[in-house]
Amino acid sequence: MILYEHVNTIYNNQDSIFETGTASSSAHLPTDEKNVTENTSNLGDTCNNSEGLTLGGLSKRRLEKERLELLSQKENTIKLLQEHADKWIIQITGAENTLYSNETFQMQFKFTEKYPIESPEVIFLGQPPIHPHIYSNGHICLSILYDHWSPVLSVNSICLSIISMLSSCKKKRKPLDDILYCSTGPRISPKNMKWMFHDDKV
């Protein structure tokens, strides 16, 4: 998005440029990766596994397996509320003896036919947790959702990572650049932003 090319700030796993003071010109500009993904958007259509399944077919099988695993869980810490072909609504509950103890939050997982090779888009719905790594528009600054994604990760492991991130929080507060990030334009997928990560302490 051209609009985002003029926002000179860092969206990282700790805080914004306004706290760290580590800006260095365009190296930290959030960028729109749409043009990059468009050039590779057709790769999944021709990529087959050893059984001859297209990546889209593999995605469906993988999601069905994950769905059954979520439904079989005895605890309600992670609960599948709604499911559609490419979109799930998950509810998580904050761990006991933490700042978010027994608080519940809903997240939307949006999948493509390239899942699990490609990470899902994950955002909070409604009122997100007040947390230094979570923006008011529901976007989450967590490396495994972007640069550090691996196909071995799953919906369950993402939820556990987010619960762990909440559990380690020492003080409820929004990111310092929350207002700027959430007001620079219409909603854009967090996957189309270039995130920078250097610290997971909160």
From TrEMBL:
Compositional bias segments (type: Polar residues): 37-48
Residue span of region Disordered: 23-48
SUPFAM superfamilies with a match to the protein in the record: UBC-like
Record-annotated UBC core domain positions: 58-202
Entry protein name: UBC core domain-containing protein
Organism of derivation: Plasmodium falciparum (isolate Palo Alto / Uganda)
Lineage: Eukaryota, Sar, Alveolata, Apicomplexa, Aconoidasida
